[in-house]
Amino acid sequence: MEHVYVADEDRLYSFAPSSVVTLDEPRPRPQHTLCTGQTRVRVVEGEPIFYAGIAITNLCNLTCKHCPVSVTTTGAQRREWDPDHFDRMISDLVSRGLTRVSITGGEPFLHQDIESLFDVLAAHGIESKINTNGLLADPDVVARLVSRGLIEIDVSINDPQDDTDSYQRAEDYAAARIQAVEGLVERLGSSITVTASSVLTRRLLGRLEATEDRLATAGVGRWRLREMLPNLDREPDDSLVPSLSQAREALTRFARLPRKLLVYGYLIDAVRGTPAGRRCRNLEKNYAYVSYDGQCWWMAGLAGAPLGDLAADGAQRLSERLRAYRDAMEPPARCVTCPARFICSESPHLIAS
Fold it and tell me: Which domains does the chain possess?
């Protein structure tokens, strides 16, 4: 059994045990679950692994309630990729078609030698983005990473006015996060894409237009509206979770307004409607997530399919399993893992209901 999201009694996100796909063995409950939220994704035929999200450290300076990754705020419990092992991993993945990576954590800027990791990416000709809370993103350091192939920095901003309900501790970093974005824009200009990411909480659904205005003023170029993902090591905070009807109503209203930013994400894209003849981009991802301890997952929707241990199994074995999962999970099986399945006009789940 594994955990996936289901719509139950007008809940947009809730947990329920469900067996989605059975291949050679039942899939264990995922321990690491991430979703990129990317759109217009390329597909490299014949080489399954072309895009990887890599958690380079489990250390973080915040305690976000909605974070799907089990992190530590204690240096003594730090686990992270060292440059030598990172180089071997990237070399292995490049041999299977890797062309782009998304660096994440924890908080990536807490890694003890982040610039050396980007030296590795540059040596392999890999373009990259980085996901950060922004508080430790020194513009001068980011500028040096740009020279090593960084093309996008994605800063999580839950609410630029007040984000006190976002943390396990009583904290408020709303002003600091938006100031971090302004500093990056001022220092880096057009040399990098500055994206803001926000989790679709109850609070945000009521402040979508105002939040877009503030982000546009700060100089953000793109805004990613993210679904809330599970952290299986702790109970979800139900006070953050909107209902399905709330999300559909708020996003539908927001989608009709003139845009100040390029806004994207599974749910807002689904509300806008899927153009005729276009396959769901979520089904075409050759995307692997590599955790800070070397465990790998294929991410399609919200349920991660385990690919194995990179060091023990090697990239070829992971690539074979990724292809097997991808080929076996045809719609509607894959739609079960998608956060937009009860909003998307093409979803067989919505049509059936």
Answer: 2-9+30-352 (3.20.20.70)
